[in-house]
Amino acid sequence: MFLLSCEMRGYMISVSRQNPLALYIQLKELIIDKIEGGEWKQGEMIPRELDLQQMYNVSRTTVRQALTELVFEGKLERIQGKGTFVAEKKLEPIRPELTGFTQDMEEKGHKVQSIILFKDIVVPNKKVQRILKLGTQDKVWKLDRIRLVDGLPIGYHETFINISLTPNAELDKYNFASESLYQALVKEEILLGDSEETVEANFPNEVHSKMLGIETPTPVLEIMRTSNLKDGRPYEFSNMVYRADKYKYSIKLKHQ
C-alpha cells in the first residue's frame, strides 16, 4: 500500500491513494477528526492551504475542495483577508416543548439580548390575517426584534399577537430588550396551548442580510410558528429568520 503521511502535533495523519474514497473526502475526515477531537478548537485558524498541501502531500485542488465543502457544512469559516477558522458551534434550541428563544439559549448558558426595531398596534398583512383568522380591519400587537446571543446577531423575529383575544394584557410595560415574550405572557396569565411550526431553508432578503450582518448570499433558516390559546384560537404568529451558519434546529421524537 502506498501511504502518504506526516507527523503533526504528535499525531500520525495519513491519506492513502489505495483507499477507495476520494482524497478530498479523506482529507475532510481527517480535518473533522481534529475538530471533534479538540485539537483544532472553535475560533482557531487552521493551517494555510499551502501548509495543508505539504502536510498531506496532496494537490491544491484537493485541499480547496475539502475546505470548501467543510465551509458549506458549517465546520469551517472563511474570513476574507485573514484565513480559514474552525467555526463556532451552532446554537441549538431545546425541543419538543414550546419554549421561547430566550429560555432555549439561557438554558444552554448563553446571554440573550434583543434590539427592539418596532413595537406598536398595526393592521397586519393578508398572510397574518389568514393565519390568525382576522378581519381586514382587525389589529394586532407587533414586535420586531434582532435576537443577539453572546453579543452576536443570530435571529430576526417578527411577532404578531391577536390582542383582541386578551384585551386586558399589558404587553407594553415589559422591556423586551432583555425580557422574554413568552414569560411576559405567563405573567399576564395568558396560557398557550398547541403550536405549529414550519421550517424552511431560504436565502435572506435585503432586510435580513442587513440586520444579521450577512455579507454573502448565505442561506438562512426560516421558522414560522403559530401558537393557539388553550381553547384552540390562534393567538400568536412569529416569523423567525436565523443565520444558518450559527444556528441549527433539532427535534427529539418518541415512539408511541
UniProtKB/TrEMBL annotation:
<keyword id="KW-0804">Transcription</keyword>
<keyword id="KW-0238">DNA-binding</keyword>
<keyword id="KW-0805">Transcription regulation</keyword>
<feature type="domain" description="HTH gntR-type">
    <location>
        <begin position="21"/>
        <end position="89"/>
    </location>
</feature>
<dbReference type="InterPro" id="IPR028978">
    <property type="entry name" value="Chorismate_lyase_/UTRA_dom_sf"/>
</dbReference>
<dbReference type="InterPro" id="IPR036388">
    <property type="entry name" value="WH-like_DNA-bd_sf"/>
</dbReference>
<dbReference type="InterPro" id="IPR036390">
    <property type="entry name" value="WH_DNA-bd_sf"/>
</dbReference>
<dbReference type="GO" id="GO:0003700">
    <property type="term" value="F:DNA-binding transcription factor activity"/>
</dbReference>
<dbReference type="GO" id="GO:0045892">
    <property type="term" value="P:negative regulation of DNA-templated transcription"/>
</dbReference>
<dbReference type="InterPro" id="IPR000524">
    <property type="entry name" value="Tscrpt_reg_HTH_GntR"/>
</dbReference>
<dbReference type="GO" id="GO:0003677">
    <property type="term" value="F:DNA binding"/>
</dbReference>
<protein>
    <recommendedName>
        <fullName>HTH gntR-type domain-containing protein</fullName>
    </recommendedName>
</protein>
<dbReference type="InterPro" id="IPR050679">
    <property type="entry name" value="Bact_HTH_transcr_reg"/>
</dbReference>
<dbReference type="Pfam" id="PF00392">
    <property type="entry name" value="GntR"/>
</dbReference>
<dbReference type="InterPro" id="IPR011663">
    <property type="entry name" value="UTRA"/>
</dbReference>
<dbReference type="Pfam" id="PF07702">
    <property type="entry name" value="UTRA"/>
</dbReference>
